[in-house]
From TrEMBL:
<feature type="signal peptide">
    <location>
        <begin position="1"/>
        <end position="17"/>
    </location>
</feature>
<dbReference type="GO" id="GO:0004252">
    <property type="term" value="F:serine-type endopeptidase activity"/>
</dbReference>
<comment type="similarity">
    <text>Belongs to the peptidase S1 family. CLIP subfamily.</text>
</comment>
<keyword id="KW-1015">Disulfide bond</keyword>
<dbReference type="InterPro" id="IPR001254">
    <property type="entry name" value="Trypsin_dom"/>
</dbReference>
<feature type="domain" description="Peptidase S1">
    <location>
        <begin position="44"/>
        <end position="282"/>
    </location>
</feature>
<dbReference type="InterPro" id="IPR009003">
    <property type="entry name" value="Peptidase_S1_PA"/>
</dbReference>
<dbReference type="InterPro" id="IPR001314">
    <property type="entry name" value="Peptidase_S1A"/>
</dbReference>
<keyword id="KW-0732">Signal</keyword>
<dbReference type="InterPro" id="IPR051487">
    <property type="entry name" value="Ser/Thr_Proteases_Immune/Dev"/>
</dbReference>
<dbReference type="GO" id="GO:0006508">
    <property type="term" value="P:proteolysis"/>
</dbReference>
<dbReference type="Pfam" id="PF00089">
    <property type="entry name" value="Trypsin"/>
</dbReference>
<protein>
    <submittedName>
        <fullName>Trypsin</fullName>
    </submittedName>
</protein>
<dbReference type="InterPro" id="IPR043504">
    <property type="entry name" value="Peptidase_S1_PA_chymotrypsin"/>
</dbReference>
<dbReference type="InterPro" id="IPR018114">
    <property type="entry name" value="TRYPSIN_HIS"/>
</dbReference>
């Protein structure tokens, strides 16, 4: 287990789905990038309220706009100036902001999004999405963001530990945190941070619960926690008996509507990309 160094949305909307049709595979993000709800934002289905921000101090919220706080995706602090998130979240930011990710606000130390006055807000000055990310559900859905000012570590804001490249979390219980929809068909969203937990599935067990043509790869892990719109880039976290929490995965994709037929959600396996994370960071400091 590596010490902390370095954010899941791959579901876009399947609004008004016809039950007679096969569910679509989508990225976890906002239902529409053209109509952004300011007051209403998403949460984990069948989840529980997080009691305090110090329970998950590494979680951050990426704002879709620079003008006002509007949650788009989650992410994780891995170092004082580094965030890891899903690549599709960064691409959504680019699409909505005319190709410009720089200046994106990141909010840390938040549980209830209706009150962000105590949040530490930092701004993106560098972004790197994996070259293997094509926008498809089976591609390399991971990205790194660097902020112009360091986060100040406290009980509310800290970095999470990265896994070792040899770590295997299959069968271990992991928790997911996020602000996504609590009901796939609902129109009322809680502002409170939610969490849920379930054992992690190995690739064989996961494939048995998915269609034969599911775009599952060895670079992904599965959990039967039901994530939904707004849970992109959300962290999948393992708590060992001793030692710090470890970042296992980042919310990537699922079948729509959310939680359809209890099919698992796929997460980008951070273990598979630890080498890439360190390479990007090293290259950044060589060039800056």
């Amino acid at each position: 287990m590596l010490l902390p160094l370095i954010l899941l949305p791959v579901l876009l909307a399947l609004a008004g789905a016809n039950p007679a049709q096969l569910p679509h595979i989508q990225h976890l993000t906002l239902k529409s990038l053209e109509q952004v709800p300011v007051e209403i934002q998403p949460l984990i289905i069948d989840g529980y309220d997080v009691q305090g921000v110090d329970n998950v101090p590494y979680l951050v919220s990426l704002s879709l706009t620079k003008a006002t706080y509007t949650h788009l995706c989650g992410g994780c602090i891995i170092a004082k100036r580094w965030i890891v998130t899903a690549a599709h979240c960064v691409e959504d930011l680019r699409k909505f902001n005319d190709g410009d990710v720089l200046g994106t606000p990141i909010y840390a130390g938040v549980v209830n999004r209706s009150n962000v006055t105590a949040a530490q807000v930092r701004y993106v000055d560098f972004a790197s999405t994996h070259r293997g990310f094509t926008g498809e559900a089976g591609s390399d859905n991971i990205a790194l963001l660097h902020v112009s000012e360091s986060f100040e570590y406290s009980a509310r804001v800290q970095a999470i530990a990265l896994p070792d490249i040899e770590d295997d979390y299959s069968g271990k219980t992991a928790a997911v945190y996020g602000w996504g929809l609590t009901d796939a068909d609902g129109d009322e969203y809680s502002k409170e941070l939610k969490y849920a937990f379930a054992p992690l599935l190995n690739s064989t067990a996961c494939k048995e619960l998915l269609p034969a043509d599911a775009p599952l790869t060895k670079q992904q892990v599965c959990s039967q926690v039901k994530t939904c719109y707004g849970d992109g880039g959300t962290p999948l976290i393992y708590w060992p008996i001793t030692g710090p929490a470890e970042l296992v995965g980042l919310g990537s994709w699922s079948y729509m509507p959310c939680g359809f037929a209890s099919r698992p959600t796929a997460y980008t396996s951070v273990t598979a990309y630890v080498g890439w994370i360190y390479q990007v960071i090293a290259a950044y400091y060589q060039l800056n």
